[in-house]
Amino acid sequence: MAKSTLLKSSIAKKVAMALSGLFLIMFLSLHFFINMVSVFSADAFNEMSHFMGYNPLIQFVMQPILIVGVVFHFVMGFVLELKNRSARPIAYAKYNGAANASWASRNMIISGLVVLAFLGLHFYDFWVHEMIYKYVEVNAIEESRYYTELVAKFESPIRTGLYSVAFLLLSVHLWHGFTSSLQSIGFDNKIGRSLHKICYAFAIIVPFGFIFIALFHHFNN
To answer: What is the 3-state secondary structure (H, E, C) of the chain?
Structure first.
């Protein structure tokens, strides 16, 4: 009975982890689309960013949900990692990890920690700045400021480099995490396996797309 309860608890945690991950992937997709617009049109980027920054539904409903989702996903990841480690108390003398799982799946906690550190920097750069601009300094609404602020973030080669490295690790994290999330919610079948190619494509296109955006603005300043 205890084992059955533990099993159900572990499955529930994995499902919750998967759902939070898929939610963050939806946000990442929207974030990617808006940022990619900055490459083609400063005016369109400013318009979209202003809408996102001053829409009450986004600011006071979706934004808190996003923050909770980020915290929940990473906390749950650490919990599951600790549970998995405690379930394997015996370290085998000879263990070839690559024969049992990919590097990405065996190092999710490492790539996750790097991504979490990057998110902290990203929140500080953009979200904290936005909160101070609007609610602390109470500046006047300026719809055309967003593109200039975005470009300014990528003037530094060090910041641009760190940004690029973080998205390389995000690509690794998504490579395993996206497909794993689908399996956890029941897509461990023929349909799910056919979706793997889409997941792998997403894990490459979106992170490397963000790197392209950063490099584009860095070299075009």
So the answer is: CHHHHHHHHHHHHHHHHHHHHHHHHHHHHHHHHHHHHHHHCHHHHHHHHHHHHHCHHHHHHHHHHHHHHHHHHHHHHHHHHHHHHHCCCCCCCCCCHHHHCCHHHHCHHHHHHHHHHHHHHHHHHHHHHHHHHHHHCCCCCCCCHHHHHHHHHCCCHHHHHHHHHHHHHHHHHHHHHHHHHHHHCCCCCHHHHHHHHHHHHHHHHHHHHHHHHHHHHHHCC
pTM of the model: 0.81
Instruction: Supply φ then ψ for residue 141, to 5 degrees.
Output: -65, 125
The answer to whether 83 and 6 have CB atoms below 8 angstroms apart is no
Q: Which long-range contacts (CB under 8 A, 24 or more apart) does 7-12 make?
A: 10/80, 10/83
Q: What is the pLDDT of residues 72-131, one digit of tens each?
A: 888 888 887 777 777 655 554 444 555 556 666 666 777 777 777 777 777 777 778 888
pLDDT, mean over the chain: 82
Token digits for 143? 């719809």
Handedness of CA 82, 183, 189, 175 (dihedral sign): negative
Sign of the alpha-carbon torsion through 27, 33, 35, 41:
negative
- What tens digit of pLDDT does each residue of 134-186 get? 888 888 888 899 999 999 999 999 989 988 998 998 898 888 888 888 888 77
Residue 206, token pair as written in the block: 């979106």
CB 146 within 8 A of CB 50: yes
